[in-house]
Amino acid sequence: MKKKLLPMFALFTALALTACGGGNGGGSKPKTSGNTHTHTFDTTKWESDATNHWHPATCEHTTQKGDKAAHTLEAYNDAEHVDRASTCSEAGVKYEKCSICGYIKETTIDKLDHDWDAGVSTANCGEAGKTTYTCKKCGETKEETAGYIQHAWEKVGSVEAGDGGLAYDLVKCSKCQKEGLMVMVKNEDGTDNMTVTGSPKTSPERTVKLGATNDSMTAVIKLAEAKTGKLYFRGTMDYWYTSSNENQKKGIYDGKGTASKANGVANFKMEVGADAASLTEVALTASTDLLYSDFFPQEVGFSGVDGTDWSQIGDVEVGNVSLAAGLNTIRFTRIDSYNCAIYAFVVAFDNTAA
Fold this sequence. Notes:
The chain is mainly beta. It is built from two helices and 22 strands.
């Protein structure tokens, strides 16, 4: 029995002496307890990952890593690897090189945030425009639509009614100094100044809101000399805060019937001519892309009229007109819903002569 056990004991002892004792991640000598194998590494070569470097094993245990250590990184640039600072439009990059193994680390640096200046606006009174902003860091520019700027009209004179023409005021904008005329829908005592056709609805004092399609209001004025300028109607918007209507979100081409930009039909039209028989429709200008909320200040201007809140008075730009010396007729006609209560017609002259 003893003779049979002896050969198996000798075999077990031989296997233990030749087996590898395990890892050696940090050097060229293995743990030797119960081992006779010594790992070998190629000390002339380095392998690496993004964090560490090591010598590769030359023995059969290829997963072993000799002299493993973290990279020692230093600033580095050559013809192929050049640091680049971040800009507002492009991310930067930084290169570092390990002084031990030569590994090159590339780090991306986030783009900078633009630092926009206060901007330069091209908008003037009575029109919208664009504001151009310039980045203080990189010089890049961007454009945004500038809000519609209201004229601030002040009365500087008046023209009495006579020779077939209505009374009207001479006005001047305190912001841009542009001069013009303003003819009121109603007189101070509440009587009609213009000729109104149809059935007006209840509206704030000295304004008229036309009640139905094709209702109109007409002014005839007499000028001492010919004038060119921009025509506006001056008025207020109702149902400002009523969610069921939300007229402030509607534009000149919004309506409940035919009015739409696709159809080329606005919800009103204005005409100018020497008399009622020779009226020509005024071509709407580009500002008609704006909403009524761009023309009318949003704060409540009139409360409780017909149970409704109304905006403050504002000017809606219509288009360019030529007025002749002598009598001129200006007519506003309702085409569709969402019309405003009209307070006056205004013509801002192209020149500054009264």
